[in-house]
Amino acid sequence: MIITIANQKGGVGKTTSALNIGAYLAESGKKVLLVDFDPQSNLTSGLGLLNSETDGVRAPSVYDMIINGKKAEEVFVASGIENLYVIPSNISLAGAEIELVSQISRESKLKSTLSTFATQYDYVIIDSPPSLGMLTINAFVASDHIIVPVQCEYFALEGISQLLNTVSMIKDSLNPKLEISGVILTMYDTRTKISESVASEIRSFFKDKTFDTIIPRNVKLAEAPSFGQTIKQYDSASSGASSYRKLADEILLRFK
Ligand SMILES: Nc1ncnc2c1ncn2[C@@H]1O[C@H](COP(=O)(O)OP(=O)(O)O)[C@@H](O)[C@H]1O
Ligand SMILES: [Mg+2]
Fold first, then answer.
1. Is 21 close to ligand 1, i.e. is its CB under 6 Å away?
2. Three-state SS string across the chain, please?
3. What Cα–Cα distance (Å) separates residue 45 from each residue in 18, 21, 67, 225, 228?
4. pLDDT in tens, 117-175
5. Could you list the residue range(s) of the whole structural domain that residue 191 is in?
6. Whether residue 218 has its Cβ less than 6 Å from ligand 1
7. Among the four residues 91, 144, 216, 251, which has the most C-beta atoms within 10 Å?
8. Nearest ligand 1 atom to alpha carbon 240
9. CB neighbours of 14 closer than 8 A, spacing ≥ 6?
10. Rounded Cα–Cα distance for residues 184 and 37 (Å)
11. Whole-angstrom Cα distance, residue 133 to residue 218?
12. How far is the CA of 68 from the centre of ligand 2 (A)?
């Protein structure tokens, strides 16, 4: 099953969610592949994989799959965590947005290079960039489900109609099974009334698509990537860790 984590807003918790959901699904014994599909490569570096060996435009990455016809088998790496594998990204992916425009089947490049390889995994989670451009469209065409993290702040739902339009356009044309199947409330601040009211606004909009588990604002979640660690490795007793563990359990139940 292929799931894209998407929201064209930056800084809402896409990468943090992809990384930590992936780690907890792997912990529960599922075989998981994380695909870093953002030129900023935060997922790759958050796992400590963007070092001198893998860095630079010549290291094998998802870019080579969609532009140079490389196979996923030649690009994927082990994360160092049991059951968790990664297709890394690097800055070369920034050029793909433009390079894809002139290609045949430009919306299906990721699907055609990923779908067979993906069948070896229980869960494939794609981390997408903060835009609704050609890369995100490729992720949507390749996916069965979309999970949308929404930050519990003012203007949380701003831009959501654009996202919904893009999803329904892809569903009507290239991927009839595509659905927004989950919404994550992220960066919830228990001390503020804003978080509470925004959370209930999001719940009334997305109804039971919204996961029960709320991800709190927790500084440990922000610190972990700078050590190249998931929250489970960095501080498994933190509130961020326990909430992502609970969220992964919900995902296991919802996406069988
Ligand atoms: N629940 C959280 N509490 C505190 N900081 C968070 C939380 N989730 C994410 N962050 C931090 O906020 C920033 C944006 O999160 P990120 O996952 O990179 O968002 P996106 O991928 O949507 O741009 C990062 O610095 C990240 O470490
Ligand atoms: Mg990100």
1. no
2. CEEEECCCCCCCCHHHHHHHHHHHHHHCCCCEEEEECCCCCHHHHHCCCCCCCCCCCCCCCHHHHHHHCCCHHHHCEECCCCCEEEECCCCCHHHHHHHHHHCCCHHHHHHHHHHHHHCCCCEEEEECCCCCCHHHHHHHHHCCEEEEEEECCCCCCCCHHHHHHHHHHHHHHCCCCCEEEEEEEEEECCCCHHHHHHHHHHHHHHHHHEEEEEEECCHHHHHHHHHCCCHHHHCCCCHHHHHHHHHHHHHHHHCC
3. 13, 16, 22, 7, 6
4. 999 999 999 999 999 999 999 999 999 999 999 999 989 999 999 999 999 999 999 99
5. 2-254
6. yes
7. 251
8. 1
9. 5, 6, 7, 38, 127, 128, 130, 149
10. 20
11. 30
12. 24
Query: Does residue 46's CB lie within 6 angstroms of at least one atom of ligand 1?
Result: no
172 Cα: distance to centroid of ligand 1 (angstroms): 32
pLDDT given at position 59: 80
The ligand minimizing its distance to the Cα of 241 is 1
What is the average pLDDT score of the chain? 95
Q: What average pLDDT score do residues 232-240 get?
A: 98
The reply to whether ligand 1 has any atom less than 6 angstroms from the CB of 190 is: no
Place of tokens 């094998």: 60
Indicate the number of domains in the chain. 1
Q: Is the CB of 15 under 6 A from ligand 1?
A: yes
Residue 233 sits at φ, ψ, to 5 deg, of -75, -35
The CATH number that applies at residue 185 is: 3.40.50.300
Largest CA distance in the chain: 51
Over 70: is that where the pLDDT of 51 sits? no
